Automatic annotation (TrEMBL), chains A, B:
PANTHER family: HTH-TYPE TRANSCRIPTIONAL REGULATOR GALS, LACI-RELATED TRANSCRIPTIONAL REPRESSOR
Keyword annotations from UniProtKB, A to Z: DNA-binding, Transcription, Transcription regulation
Protein name in UniProt: LacI family DNA-binding transcriptional regulator
Natural source organism: Pedobacter punctiformis
Gene Ontology MF terms in the entry: DNA binding
Domain called HTH lacI-type: residue spans: 4-58
PROSITE patterns noted in UniProt: HTH_LACI_2
Amino acid sequence: MDSINIKKLAQALKLSTSTISRAFRDNSDISIATKERILAKAKELNYQPNHYASNLREQKSKTIAVIVPELANNYFSQAIHGIERVARENGYHILIYVTDDEYKKEVNFIRHLHNGRADGIIMSVSGEGNDHNYLNKFGPKRLPLVFFDRIYEDIETSRVITNDYNSSFLATEHLIEQGCKRIAYLVVNKSLSIGKTRMQGYIDALGKHGIQYEESLIVDCSNSYEENSITIKQALTQLKPDGVFTSVERLAFATYYACYDLNISIPGDLKVISFSSLEIAPLLNPSLTTITQPATEIGEQAAGLLFKMLDNKTDENQPEEVILESKIIIRNSTSAAIKTH
Amino acid sequence: MDSINIKKLAQALKLSTSTISRAFRDNSDISIATKERILAKAKELNYQPNHYASNLREQKSKTIAVIVPELANNYFSQAIHGIERVARENGYHILIYVTDDEYKKEVNFIRHLHNGRADGIIMSVSGEGNDHNYLNKFGPKRLPLVFFDRIYEDIETSRVITNDYNSSFLATEHLIEQGCKRIAYLVVNKSLSIGKTRMQGYIDALGKHGIQYEESLIVDCSNSYEENSITIKQALTQLKPDGVFTSVERLAFATYYACYDLNISIPGDLKVISFSSLEIAPLLNPSLTTITQPATEIGEQAAGLLFKMLDNKTDENQPEEVILESKIIIRNSTSAAIKTH
DNA sequence: TTGTATGCGTTATCAC
DNA sequence: GTGATAACGCATACAA
């Protein structure tokens, strides 16, 4: 190996390795002169303390892992960006893991992260339907963990969520105010906690306005584009709703496509509102009314909570919960006017 | 520390650490019985070989770094997904670095990656305008590097690109065939190699069809949404183009917004085509004609090239170049018909 | 302020 | 087939 290391740098400077080491840590006392001499030479020889050796010594990795169900989704990419920003400020690196909504991958990732590779985990979960007690099996050795958006209710740990119940309630109410009487609710997985909370807001809003809740109007979709296309078209033709509330952006898109195909006019025949962080929602045809979550801020807050835990500023038995507000942005897809643009 | 390590596992089983170690590597000879006994106990105690110790020993990290200009962009998130998939298959982990298009961050990331943290780098560059010779300063110690999409022409290393010249030529020709006579070209940074290549296709297509190239029709935009909005509105009102070709998806969105504000009808008054990987381009108002790059495949191929290098299957002096084809998908934003929708 | 010695957790080499 | 030991590169306790 011709590569540089602390020993060679020490030799080149006729110093000991400990002095070199000190030059790279802030705390230790070392004369400014030698420190500068060392740093200069280090730069010249392109030396950097080996990350793995340092971390082995210090028992921490300055790395956090981010686990998300998908990447090609505006919400998650924005959230990750937020996490990235905060992590970078704190000198941390970020490992990315995508589960593709597969529970097994999630379990696998988490398990393999418990080998020192990461100091903490920020996750939006994928396996609500499954046994997620696996997280408790790590006992006190479990890495600091922060949930965001999609959480496991029964795992005690810090979390950043939005007020989904409220938003759903208001969204449904908005549709009602725009004249909708038969509002379908499209969800990816009814059993997901996020689906349940959002659904409850929908149900309660119906109740408040004296509209009978019909279970058939809950349309359970999947992660497959093709399947959803069929499901949604069936729902539209058979149930004949005059409003659709989708719990995920993807389902709003699918609804749009279905309406194009079926010649259903939005918002004339059908009004659509959706959870979505899409920045170009105003450019859709028609522009989409959205419940927009503060994705970037969610990421930042999640990272903030994790760093608090890493700094031992959080009582383990008192996980923190941050609840952020989403905004309903009304656009043409729920306009009471019949004519589209 | 109550945490588990190889020594404690060895004690618990009354075996030596070497035997334990062997159970976790594939090659060494070890009796099946003890191996299974070890793995079982390991699972029970939740033991995994410490990543940092292993990597310090083996001098590799099983980690690759991905550096991109931005995340909240369909192209990059799809590309990263592709990289992720291939990396995972090979048992590698992924570190993400976002430069926000800042050259300094890029240099900083790269420099700090040369401490063993990553075995290789996949990057779409941000600093074309600057001195990127810094990459050569590492000499033979430079980490294996693969460029994708945005590259430095003068750095010799493997790369995955699309045939931008061709696509631009065809895109421009398409606008001409739809009746455009004054086609503006919107670019983020003229000096970027990717901007230049794409621009040349535009210029040559004009030439082929006997249209005079006007430099004023090249509109140099920035990364700021507000600035671009002003720039584009000015360009539309002053230059009065009847077609716009944008080199980045973001500029097409900005053009749409500008047209909404200025009451310019697309495609009636102005036809728009853009490089874009947006999956919902059909849902825009009007649906957007795109040059769509195979983003996921680009990511997969880039990862593939990197692993080839890591396996020493690439001659260092013979970097590989993969050129993929983009597809032009014609939609309403370039329709010859006057009426939208 | 600087140097010496030790150990972080693992794996490879060499014995047995 | 298994065990003892050195070494990976670094950071700290302690000595000087």
